[in-house]
Amino acid sequence: MPILDDRSLEFFSRSADQTRRLGMRLGGLLKTGDVVCLSGDLGAGKTTLVQGIAQGWGSMDPVTSPTFILVNLYRRPDKNHFYHLDAYRLEDGSDADELDIQQMEDNGVLVIEWPERINTAISPERLWINLSWQSEEQRNMVFLAQGQHYERLLNDFRQQAFGG
């Protein structure tokens, strides 16, 4: 687990279960207003990571990819919201404007797959995670904190997930 600097972290997951467990650790730290961007090719593990994030956040619902409906909404018993947006089918930030991303950011946790397609519509302060396929069971994840809040979040995540 090389630590690149205070604003970044690199991790190699060796299984889908490990990716989900790592997501659960992150999800447990997320609060209303947090934005997490997941970038990576098809098969890089984005939806697997979201499954763990949603479970760690407290969603009782199974997570599926919202590729064709764009946004899935998950709830906790306390009525908090978790928005899972898949921007793969969007052309650019103007397409995203119709989805009212600001409302999602203001009223829940927002996790976005394919965020580079709508970058102009997303808050510049966010946690950005680049995922890449290494082999059938291995994925590389690079976490990049963009903004002081996300630097603190990444530090908390680092301590919780790795103890250091």
Short précis:
The protein is an alpha/beta fold and 164 residues long.
* N-C termini distance: 10 Å
Give the neighbour order of strands across the main sheet: 1-7-6-2-5-4-3
Which geometry do the CA atoms define? globular
CATH homologous superfamily name of the domain at 31-93 and 100-135 and 151-162? P-loop containing nucleotide triphosphate hydrolases
The secondary structure category is alpha/beta
Helical fraction: 25-40%
- The proportion of residues in beta strands is 25-35%
Mean pLDDT figure: 89
Low-confidence stretches: none
Structure description:
The relative contact order is 0.23. A hairpin with a 5-residue loop joins strand 3 and strand 4 (81-86). The chain has a domain at 31-93 and 100-135 and 151-162: 3-Layer(aba) Sandwich (Rossmann fold). The chain is an alpha/beta fold and 164 residues long. It contains five helices and seven strands; from the N terminus they run E-H-E-H-E-E-H-H-E-E-E-H. The longest helix is centred in the C-terminal third of the chain and has 15 residues, at 148-162. The chain starts with 7 loop residues before the first strand and ends with a helix. The protein has a seven-stranded mixed beta sheet with strand order 1-7-6-2-5-4-3, with helices on both faces. The chain is globular and about 40 Å long. 31% of the residues lie in helices and 27% in strands.
